[in-house]
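dude i think i finally got it to work??
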Amino acid sequence: MGLVVQKYGGSSVADAEGIKRVAKRIVEAKKNGHQVVVVVSAMGDTTDELIDLAEQVSPMPAGREFDMLLTAGERISMALLAMAIKNLGHEAQSFTGSQAGVITDSVHNKARIIDVTPGRIRTALDEGNIAIVAGFQGVSQDKKDITTLGRGGSDTTAVALAAALDAEVCEIYTDVDGVFTADPRVVKKARKIDWISFEDMLELASSGSKVLLHRCVEYARRYNIPIHVRSSFSGLQGTWVSNEPGDRKVEQAIISGVAHDTSEAKITVVGVPDKPGEAAAIFRTIADAEINIDMVVQNVSAASTGLTDISFTLPKTEGRKAIDALEKQKGAIGFDGLRYDDQIGKISLVGAGMKTNPGVTASFFEALSNAGVNIELISTSEIRISVVTRADDVNEAVRAVHTAFGLDSDSAEAVVYGGTGR
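look at this
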């Protein structure tokens, strides 16, 4: 049997009973002959509670100290889980991200992994131990400071370790039974997907599907690490995310799923001179502020004024920073003003099969129209169509599109065992 990396989310280890249940599952994998490396998140809502505490102490906490605080949650989980495993008669050793060899850049709160040097993990495995690693964290390559990887970073930690250790699979345990055609919290008739390609999963994750972080899927695709998404609350088979499975040719479904995201805001730069270099200046300002943007739309310029409007979406958490950065460059760029809107939502239809099936776009917009949903922005790729609408319309829009494309399940409703979505 080969090496298996398992990752458990916060809802799986939310309390002592959850930790003991997870420990039994890990020991079972060990008894089946696997070498086992476990990546664990903070218990339940611990990270949110630490963030709230930091904000009570300081409205703008220093990045270095903020990371030092947040990593405490995973360290608690890893130690308790190691204790629970030892109580079952098996040896386990816990490691922080830095002890596990997770090397990152120096960007606090959203660091990226540069390298993984898991020497201590290999030693622990060679000695017959189960290795427990704190997710979501690493150590910067230059200053040796503790860093965090951003929301969902434990997924990325798990896949990065799986690649570095040449694992046969990375199992992501969460509070649902796999990847569904839509969020089962919104669409009760969402259907579990047995297998999905890296390409489609990457689009779903980038479009708001919370079951996997898009950085995790990118890493898995790059190193060809199969991911098995499953629930820690049941013994059911989950969803396999990989390249085409073996030699068995799979006729990919036209549509893989519908994703939604209400964590973004929209900024409109009003009265931009319609001449070369203006858009570049706007987006260079945003890039220099280290802000990622999503959808971009530029209107046709008015013939009478020679001015146009440029709209783009970005995370709500970066909205204030983006507005401040653009205001500082208002004179140099020459736009008239800025409009900010954080009451928006994005709905995305994803599927590699839509490339060769006419009528998908028409059916998508007809479904939204029939549901009375107004569209504000549109963005497309070969395997995705995304629209921005009012946040209040998102749930109804997702259900309408899901039904329109025949994705509703005829069987029992999807089960959400936890409540956090991770």
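The radius of gyration is 23 Å.
im so relieved honestly
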